[in-house]
Amino acid sequence: MVFVYPAVQALWISLHEWNGFQENMVYIGLGNYERMLGDATVWSSLQNTLLITVVGGAAIFLLVFFFSASLQRRIPGKKFFRALLFFPVILPGVGVGLIWQFIFNNNWGPLSLGLNAAGLGFLDRTWLSPENIVSSLTVAIVWTYVGYYLIIVLAGIEKIPSTFFEAARMDGASEWRIFRSVTIPMVWDVLMVAITLWVISALKIFDLIIATTYPSPPRGSFTLTVFVWERAVGMYTPVFQLGYATALGVVLLILVIVGVAVIRAVSRRDVLEY
Amino acid sequence: MKVMAGAVCVGLLLSGCSAGQSSDATKVVYWSEFNKGEPLQLVIQEMIDTFESENPDITVEANWAGRDVLTKLQAAVQAGTPVDIVDQSNDRILTAVVDNGLAVKLDDYLQEPSYGKSSGAWLDDFTPGSLEAFATSDGTFMIPRESYISGLWYNVDMLADAGIEPSATGTTWDQFLDDLDALAKKNPDVSPLGADASIDFYNNWWFSYLAVRVAGLEAFQNAAHDPTGEGWRQPAFLQAAQMLRDLQDKGYFQDGYQGSVYPAMQSQWANSEVAMFLNGAWIPNEVGPQAPDDFHMDVFAFPNVDGGLGNDLVEYWSNAWAVLNIGEQSDAAVKFLQFATAPDKGGKMLTDAGFPVPIQGAATPPEFAGQDKILASYTTMEQRGGLQGEAAYSTDVYNLCNDPFFLGDTAPEEFIDCLATEGAKYWSANPQ
Fold first, then answer.
1. A129 CA to chain B: closest CA distance, Å?
2. How far apart are the C-alpha atoms of B355 and B147, rounded to whole Å?
3. Beta-bridge partner residues of B274
4. Residue A45, domain extent
5. Which among B67, B261, B409 has the least Cβ separation from residue A130?
6. Each residue's pLDDT tens digit, A156-177
7. Does B70 touch chain A (CB under 8 A)?
8. What pLDDT was estimated at residue B27?
9. Is the pLDDT of residue B8 over 90?
10. Which one, out of A40, B24, B164, B350, has a CA that is 20 to 30 A from the CA of B6?
11. Same structural domain for residues B418 and B287?
12. B67 and B112 fall within a common domain
């Protein structure tokens, strides 16, 4: 009831033109969906959403592999590093966004100042300009979320009996080989859950983008969720197109369902029991 | 005896309670764009308290809903929750409230005596033209509270140091270019112009003013409403776009303005890294408190263009109140607004707090002297020549085309082509 009723209601609203202030909605059939096909902002928002999901996801899980392999070892300060990596997760998205808005500021932000001070001024960019904004936001997103997925994967690794690692070492396997042939297969299910969670949250990402570009995200930074918000309520110049915004939301829901189904299909393999 | 005394005491207590709760009082429900603690919220709360003490039969229940008050109002409309008064900027009130038939027409009320008076008309409390500026062809649906213009805000000392002392009105485009050049030469480390390009409706300010100056307001509005979009292809609009591109090509805007997220540039301005920028008259209240004590700011009107058809026009807008027809206490709501705009009541409270109000005889806060001078000799127009109040066109055509142009990603010709093409597409989907 909690999920199905709003979903069906959303589907119904998406077939209407409605601004939220009038009591009656105007039925337009698939008009909102047809409009999406010719709306360049839909496609650029979709492109940004998929870029963050795929490139951001690849970066996050590469870092997760790197850190989990590193933290698997007996190194001093292991708990500290784990807490440090997890730290951004406990910060509110709005706060993280404002931190990154500061970092990316070309005048007084530490990124530009640091690069110039280190003689690497040629690497300095207008980080939040239209051509760089999505890449910059992706970096912020990776920094924010890597700790969360690392903790999930590490929790899976810690469940693996140590005898497996000891046996592999006795057989002369390198640390990399142990990670690739023992750790990954034995946390495969956990890894897939983590990837599924990432895809869902990446497709819905909102607060960090809004906060980094607050108070008015430029169109070039729109993801689908930001576009839904802009159409529904906006910030400075609200257009109040609730029917269209709801149709965009329905597309987003379909994307999430398809994304999860694809991950489940490609990740299916025999369960290892131990 | 003891029983009687007890009964009297209980009676007095009960009557005391009932008087304190004002259970018979008329309740006006007011949803405000402000959050608790903001300067204007404090002023309005003071108004409510004073109004209630002068009118014990009316209570004003304020909901400090914040800037997304209109979004919250959607839910109220759907749920049938009575709301009597709402406030926001005039363009948003127009789009969300007036255009949807939710506002009470106030023309008859404006003919009634103003607050506490037995003769005269409420409309006489307002400065000439200020009500008309926010009226529609169907009548008056909004009451302006604080009113603002837009113009070029500048660092007085920095310009004086470069030998520039702008007059509030009458600057020409050629003079303006000379001033920018002088500023750039005098202090190469300072950007003559600044912009926070993260905000689309700030970005469209430059082209809007230039287009209106060169082509005239009527031509500008006609082009925007041309169902074929071809109106934008008049040479005057290309000329306006090229004038803006000229400023950008000369490097007058600060480095990286394309990625400047509001209010980063305003901080640069307050720190004397930028000389001037185009913005609204909220700047004294927005930047003033953050600026150094010795920072002096002033404003001059957007430059006139030689031979232009839209010179001596200035944008004028207001944060406005509307009385809603989904409320139950229109008369009491209007009475509160009459109090809020009475020169010796709410009007005084607003000016004492440093806000410029369109009320007869109200003292102008010193920071807004420039605004007063401009308003004294210029004709007012709506924001962006009226396009700001047409939210969908503004977003889906005007800003869609202007943003890439302002950011330097498209040429003037491509910009004009975009306006024409997207305009035609928009009007085909949304016939007038």
1. 4
2. 8
3. B191
4. 26-266
5. B409
6. 998 999 899 899 999 999 988 9
7. yes
8. 97
9. no
10. B24
11. yes
12. yes
Query: Which tens digit of pLDDT belongs to each residue from B366-401?
Result: 989 999 999 999 999 999 999 998 999 999 999 999
Indicate yes or no: CB of A213 within 8 angstroms of CB of B78. no
Same structural domain for residues B104 and B45?
yes
Same domain, B267 and B326: no
Residues of B whose CB is below 8 A from A227: none
pLDDT at B275 over 70: yes
B197 at interface of A, judged by CB pairs closer than 8 A: yes
B60 and B187 together in one domain:
no
Phi/psi for B322 (5° steps) reads: -130, 140
Secondary structure in 3-state letters for chain A: CCCHHHHHHHHHHCCEECCCCCCCCEECCCHHHHHHHCCHHHHHHHHHHHHHHHHHHHHHHHHHHHHHHHHHCCCCCHHHHHHHHHHHHHCCHHHHHHHHHHHCCCCCCHHHHHHHHCCCHHHCCCCCCCCCHHHHHHHHHHHHHHHHHHHHHHHHHHCCCHHHHHHHHHCCCCHHHHHHHHHHHHCHHHHHHHHHHHHHHHHCCCHHHHHHCCCCCCHHHCCHHHHHHHHHCCCCCCCCCHHHHHHHHHHHHHHHHHHHHHHHHHCCCCCCCC
Residues B310 and B412 in one domain: yes
Q: Is residue A253 part of a domain?
A: yes
What average pLDDT does the segment B229-239 reach? 98
Q: To the nearest whole angstrom, how far is the Cα of A133 from the nearest Cα of chain B?
A: 8
Q: Is residue B353 part of a domain?
A: yes
pLDDT at B15 over 50: no
Q: Using a CB–CB cutoff of 8 Å, tell me whether A219 touches chain B.
A: yes
CATH code (residue A193): 1.10.3720.10
Domain count within chain A: 1
The answer to whether position A13 is within a domain reads no
Per residue in B56-99, pLDDT (tens digit) is: 999 999 999 998 899 999 999 999 999 999 999 999 999 999 99
Indicate which CATH number applies to the domain containing B130.
3.40.190.10
Give per-residue pLDDT as tens, A98-152: 999 999 999 889 999 999 999 999 999 999 998 899 999 999 999 999 999 999 9
Same domain assignment for residues B334 and B212: no
Number of independent structural domains in chain B: 2
Chain B residues in contact with A212 by the CB 8 A cut-off are 261
Q: Could A129 and B68 be called an inter-chain contact, meaning their C-beta atoms sit closer than 8 Å?
A: no
pLDDT computed for residue A274 by the predictor:
65
pLDDT band for B20, please (50, 70, 90 cuts).
very low
ipTM of the complex: 0.86
Does the distance separating the beta carbons of B77 and A23 come in below 8 Å? yes
Q: Identify the segments of chain A with pLDDT beneath 50.
A: none
If asked whether residues B276 and B407 sit together in one domain, one would say yes
Confidence label for B351 from pLDDT (cuts 50, 70 and 90): very high
Locus of tokens 């497709």: A203
What is the value of pTM for the model shown?
Answer: 0.89
Is A20 within 8 Å of B77 when comparing Cβ atoms? yes
Domain contains A11: no
CB contact under 8 A, A240 and B404: no
Which among A19, A22, A216 has CB closest to B198?
A: A216
Query: Which residues of chain B lie closer than 8 angstroms to A9, CB-CB?
Result: none
Q: What pLDDT sits at residue A272?
A: 63
Write out chain A residues lying below 8 Å of B259, CB-based: 104, 106, 126-129, 132-133
